[in-house]
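Supplementary Methods S3. Complex input for the flavin-adenine dinucleotide-bound model.
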Amino acid sequence: MTTTTNSPTSLLSPESAAVIRATAGVVADHAEQITARFYPRMFGAHPELLRVFNKGNQATGEQSRALAASVVAYAVHLIDPDAPPFDHVLRRIAFKHVSLGIRPEQYTIVGHHLLGAVAEVLGEAVTPDVASAWDEVYWLFATQLVAEEARLYQRAGMDPAQPVRPYRVVRRIDEAHDIISLVLEPDDGESLPEIEPGQYVSVFVDLPDGSRQPRQYTVSSTASGTRLQITVNRLRGVDGAPDGQVSSFLHDSVAIGDVLDVSAPAGDFVVESSDEPLLLATAGAGITTVLPIVEHIARTQPQRPVIVAHADRTAQDHALRDTVLHVGRQIDDFTSHTWYESVDPSDQRSAQGWMDLTALPLPQDVSVFTCGPLPFMRHVRAQLLARGVPAERIRYEVFGPDLWAQNPPE
Ligand SMILES: Cc1cc2nc3c(=O)[nH]c(=O)nc-3n(C[C@H](O)[C@H](O)[C@H](O)COP(=O)(O)OP(=O)(O)OC[C@H]3O[C@@H](n4cnc5c(N)ncnc54)[C@H](O)[C@@H]3O)c2cc1C
Ligand code: HEM
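Predicted complex, serialized as structure tokens:
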């Protein structure tokens, strides 16, 4: 009698498992070369896909690295029962795909060009057995993603062919230096979708050069119940790199009355309704995740303790500070700490320098949500681990392709 198990190793045929074991290392070593060939191949054959892929992430190579790392990590998880859990990686990718309207039939296109790029880069090493084993890995991954995405589309009541709805800009608020909020109202007569605090939307814009580009923005407030707010940091290019395309466009060219194409809310950086005290540790634009969480706790669990800790360059760069403090007053046990690289002499409330959590009073069972640049989140995580906060209590959000998830830090 045959028995089946849920172990990931059982998903892969034994022949392919042996080939993957023998070749995972060489594929990992060439992963970036493979994805560097993959994108030009695919965009050459399907230029329409340039309208859903983020040009900035293509230019910096971050998306290539995230795709390569995820495929290799998935393969390793199939052959190694002790590999780190993969569910959260899969969910993150699925949410991102759903916010962009990725459809099952597009997996054939990606698979064709990805496996073609493997053959191009590894040449004769790709025997028919090797090609067939990696094809199997790709399609196992694709099948799981398609299934998860189907669930998410269904839950959001979305047709993947129509991933966006029109939203009218009804307010524009100058929040801080180079940071604005745009308050958006559905323009199709339908109500606001259900939004969990911490989720993001993809905003698609038609740029002056005729291209169309999506970017993700955290829903920074849903306080009104009929409108959602996004808060956008204008990205300035450094060391000769160009300014951010979409954030500059939203700052310079979007006015009250304009209509933007906005996806359904996505993402699993969300606070569940337990009683655990929360520490929200953020830096820079990561503050956009704090306000919706504080609003949610104030509305639904005002007895739940919340500590907000935020780091920024200066007070002038710190967006949403007053609003967070104002809403925080409705929470019974709410404390706020700030660190600035440069503190105004008249500011008695903020500390100078990097966020320092070593002496911050922390409740025993604190749950941590951190969002900001990767070096900042590494710093926060290291300090909290040193204080005995278990790794599984530290959740994070990366404002770009997640290069952290597949290589979890120690
Ligand atoms: C889940 C999630 C939530 C997010 N939430 C928010 C939010 O709430 N608020 C917010 O402000 N942002 C948020 N972001 C980030 C946002 O999606 C965009 O990445 C950000 O606005 C920058 O987009 P851009 O088009 O302006 O920059 P891009 O044009 O994409 O440029 C990005 C970077 O790439 C560099 N670059 C571009 N082209 C080149 C080149 N040819 N050579 C070298 N470097 C280059 C640019 O200089 C810039 O540093 C979030 C991202 C994610 C994934
Ligand atoms: C098994 C197949 C696939 C894998 C393993 C995969 C993997 C990934 C990963 C790791 C990311 C980055 C997620 C993050 O933000 O952290 C991503 C984003 C993305 N994927 Fe996929 N993907 C697959 C199939 C597809 C398909 C079929 C399409 C459709 C053409 C697609 C389009 C995109 C786009 C447009 C993004 C966002 C890119 C960006 O913001 O730079 N993917 N994918």
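The first strand starts at residue 164 and ends at 176. The first helix runs from residue 14 to 29.
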